[in-house]
Specification:
Shape: globular
Largest sheet: 8 strands, parallel
Distance between the termini: 29 Å
Radius of gyration: 30 Å
Oligomer: single chain
Length: 888
């Protein structure tokens, strides 16, 4: 990969922050030391999109983001300042709304559409009552009730028919208008229109084995003919309008007309149990794409590959490859199409899991680094008291593992039921051919699919079409089936063994292979919805651990584990990204860094939480649960200062994601009203807020030291650091949309200009502004750019160890043969609750020293200072509380 990647800076493009705005940011990023501007998706998305992941046309630059002009302006500006661009691409899915021409064509022409095989639609899974049609679960009530309420309206314009349901617009198949046009032809005595109606009426509906291309062409020709007739003879248009009005007033006829379309409109809840297309998780408006087909790959990637070829983009971030049928095959095609690009994948690796060695990519977007680095700041001594106190506070001793399993089971039954049903039907049909396994009920097959899926402790396996399972996949599949068997002793062991053989592709057959491949596309959503979007909102012994890529059931990591991880990362994926905040973070890096201090100050925290619970009993009412209250107090401490509106919005999202007492699809208004009232009353209670502020004052400095330490590690560890927008200063954001609020880049640019003129003591004195964090990033990135031999991908990583009574309170390592990094950890025990002296925070390291490697070492933060030999940490880490040394 070339040139050397120094660091990426992620920005969220929206209609309020366009490609033109991103271009205006480039001079600041260049001065900061960034090498790659990393943008959210910029291909045409749903109007008003705040994420860009709901693409409707991958062949165009999003007009709301500035279109081609904005893209060109950004490209020119990046080139002028020597920066490159990483673009975020979305190969797994598209938004299936009225603005998506491909999807509209599928709805209009069904299996005959030229785009029918682009989307991952299982036409053969349709119920017998509505064969070869797409189920559209968009209605607010049952179909008949919506029809009788007059909420469907058929419209006509210049020979084109559309069906409307509030803001939803659905195309109408030309063949379905044959009877309507015949009536108009009879009324007008119009032979050409009569011929057209007769021709449309004679077209046979395509069967499961015959998605006729001729039918598609015939309908296009006849639709064009009708449009010309309407243009040439306005009387035809008027007569059609009258017939449409009559049809709208005849519910039986309108219902039959709607039933003649290539889609079946249904209540939105139907998607939970019956849906004929693969979704992105449980989002009905995001339909899966069949990237395994060359024409789909070419259509989706034409624009970003063009940008790479023209030098307007240089790196790709691949969104959600786990959703694809064959991620390995996809990534190999992508690498062949972009051999020089830096490619990273948004892949969540569970603790201990490795990225597939067969993937030709530079690495991941860095969730696993975030998990490892924050683990350094979790005090092992806090695990037992915080766990016990949490269970006592909420009155429940349920383990995290039990919470996770229940959350995954809920996700599979309530959110992903249609996917489970699809696999159940496949398994049932397969077992009909295998006599030893055919005498089971559908309920048993459903249970087997569900329990094996729950048994996966990683997001998915990667068995490929026509290939045997890798040793890693064999291990994961075997373990998942073993867990299912252990948790469900009543399940037939022979049936479970047969399912294991299917997943390992040890049973031959097309249907058998299809089951194995489809199953892999279910385990990922089950983990995402069960873990990230449910369990993370149900278990709060230390909420900072509930982060994407993490495991709340584990309690931090040791220094030795972190050193081992870095050594392996340097050997295996030295150009992988290192992230501490992302657009998917549940809490920003600075919120988590402050929360982690609770593991050190567990005694003080438990006293405070218990006192607050007693104090606020008058506001609690009968509805509010203790688990939510405990999480609320942690959030206040982590994100303070936070206003009531932000806190209410966050807590509302949190309890709906929890799905126990209220949820997005079944809102308990009384419970949420009680929660909102509790927040309003407690945040208006001046004495309570004074107590919160007093407690925050005690964790503020060690929390900030945690933040500075983990950022320093990110900037110097093996890999490429990623900075999320705004996080170069303190950022106390919570989960989206809170972390997508506008960023004051002008303020950051002014501060960066100041940094060059200030001494370290002056910078440290402005800790409240976040200036030390900005200075640290600017300084370390400067070294990364100047000395790639020290901090680049090929630079060696060597652990160093301090000696003395407080050696465990620092992390030390050397990069290359000439850079030493020393940062504090578990510093709350060293600062004794004070904010430090005027010349910087003073930590008590006692007799602890660090033996520097041979040579003279100059501080990058304080260039006038040099060190050699055995150095006292009290001297090395003061006044600047961390060290980046370069060998002279």
């Amino acid at each position: 990969m070339h040139p050397q990647a120094i660091a990426t800076y992620r920005v969220q493009l929206t209609p309020d922050f366009t490609l033109h705005d991103a271009a205006g940011l480039v001079p600041y990023l260049a001065q900061l030391g960034i090498s790659h501007l990393y943008t959210s998706p910029s291909q045409q998305a749903v109007p008003g999109s705040q994420s860009g992941y709901d693409v409707i046309d991958p062949g165009r630059v999003n007009e709301e983001l500035g279109g081609d002009a904005g893209h060109d302006a950004l490209s020119r500006t990046l080139a002028r300042h020597g920066l490159r661009r990483m673009v975020d691409i979305v190969p797994n899915h598209m938004a299936v709304t009225s603005g998506n021409a491909w999807w509209n064509d599928v709805l209009k022409y069904g299996r005959s559409s030229r785009y029918a095989d682009l989307f991952d639609v299982d036409w053969d899974s349709s119920e017998a009552l509505w064969p070869n049609r797409v189920l559209l679960p968009v209605l607010g009530d049952q179909f008949g009730r919506v029809l009788e309420a007059g909420e469907f309206i058929l419209k006509h314009k210049a020979g084109d028919f559309t069906l409307h349901y509030y803001d939803n617009v659905f195309p109408v198949e030309p063949a379905s208008t044959a009877a309507l046009l015949a009536r108009v032809a009879t009324r007008l005595d119009h032979p050409v229109l009569a011929f057209l109606a007769d021709s449309l009426g004679c077209l046979p509906r395509p069967g499961a084995a015959d998605p006729s291309a001729r039918r598609y062409r015939d309908q296009e020709v006849q639709a064009d003919l009708l449009a010309r007739l309407c243009d040439e003879e306005p009387a035809i248009c008027r007569a059609i309008d009258m017939e449409v009005e009559r049809l709208n007033n005849s519910l039986p006829e309108l219902g039959e007309f709607i039933d003649a379309q290539n889609y079946r409109l249904a209540h939105w809840r139907a998607a939970d149990l019956d849906l004929g297309y693969r979704r992105f998780f449980n989002i009905n408006t995001l339909a899966g794409l069949r990237e395994e087909l060359p024409k789909v790959f070419e259509a989706v990637h034409a624009l970003p590959l063009q940008w790479l070829a023209q030098g307007e983009a240089h790196a790709l971030r691949v969104d959600h490859p786990d959703g694809l049928r064959d991620p390995t095959g996809y990534l190999r095609r992508l690498r062949a199409a972009a051999p020089e690009a830096w490619i990273v994948v948004e892949k969540i690796l569970e603790p201990g899991e490795k990225l597939c060695s067969s993937w030709p990519v530079e690495g991941t977007t860095g969730y696993e680094f975030g998990y490892m680095v924050q683990g350094l700041f979790v005090d092992p001594a806090g695990e037992q008291p915080l766990t016990q106190a949490y269970h006592e506070f909420i009155g429940n001793e349920e383990s995290y593992n039990a919470v996770l399993l229940a959350s995954k089971r809920h996700a599979l039954s309530a959110l992903l039921g249609s996917d489970v049903a699809r696999l159940t039907s496949m398994l049932l049909n397969i077992c009909e051919k295998h006599w030893r396994h055919r005498d089971y009920t559908r309920a048993v097959f459903t249970q087997v699919v569900t329990e094996v899926c729950i048994g996966f402790e990683v997001y998915r396996s990667y068995v490929r079409p026509g290939s045997p399972a890798s040793p890693e996949d064999q291990e994961q599949i075997h373990a998942a089936v073993a867990r299912a068997a252990a948790a469900n002793p009543d399940l037939d062991s022979e049936l479970l063994q047969f399912v294991e053989q299917l997943l390992l592709r040890e049973v031959r057959g097309q249907a058998e292979q299809e089951f194995a491949l489809r199953f892999q596309q279910l385990t990922g959503p089950a983990m995402a919805k069960g873990l990230e979007d449910t369990a993370f909102y149900r278990y709060f012994r230390l909420a900072a651990l509930n982060e994407v890529g993490g495991d709340p059931g584990q309690w931090g990591c040791s220094v030795a584990d972190f050193h081992r991880w870095c050594s392996e990362a340097r050997a295996e994926h030295p150009q992988s990204m290192l992230a501490t905040s992302t657009h998917d973070s549940k809490r920003s890096e600075d919120v988590r860094a402050r929360m982690l201090v609770l593991s050190e100050m567990h005694g003080a925290w438990l006293q405070a939480a218990t006192r607050w619970r007693q104090r606020n009993a008058r506001y609690r009412g009968a509805k509010l649960d203790a688990n939510t209250e405990y999480m609320y107090y942690q959030t206040l401490v982590g994100a303070w200062p936070i206003d009531e509106a932000r806190m209410r919005a966050y807590m509302e999202k949190a309890v709906r994601e929890n799905k126990t007492l209220t949820e997005w699809t079944r809102i308990d208004e009384a419970y949420e009203a009680a929660l909102h009232a509790f927040i309003v009353h407690t945040m208006a209670d001046e004495e309570f807020i004074h107590e919160v502020e007093s407690f925050v004052a005690r964790v503020l400095l060690p929390g900030r030291l945690n933040s500075l330490a983990q950022v320093c590690i990110k900037l110097t560890a093996p890999g490429v650091p990623d900075i999320y927008q705004g996080c170069e200063l303190w950022d106390l954001s919570l989960v989206d949309p809170d972390n997508r609020r506008p960023v004051d880049f002008a303020h950051r640019a002014r501060l960066l200009d100041e940094v060059a003129r200030l001494a370290p003591a002056q910078i440290l004195a402005r800790m409240d502004e976040g200036l030390p964090k900005l200075w640290l990033i600017h300084t370390a990135l400067g070294l990364r750019r100047e000395r790639p031999d020290l901090l680049g991908g090929d630079a060696a990583y060597e652990p160093l160890a301090a000696a003395g009574s407080r050696a465990q309170h620092v992390l030390c390592f050397m990069r290359g043969d000439g850079a030493v990094v020393v940062v504090p950890r578990l510093s709350a025990q060293l600062v004794d609750g004070t904010r430090g002296t005027g010349d910087g925070p003073r930590l008590d390291y006692g007799d602890t020293t660090l033996a520097l490697p041979p040579g003279n070492w100059r501080s990058r933060f304080e260039p006038e200072r040099t060190f050699s030999g055995n150095v006292a940490l009290a001297d090395l880490l003061h006044p600047v509380p961390l060290a980046l040394l370069v060998k002279e």
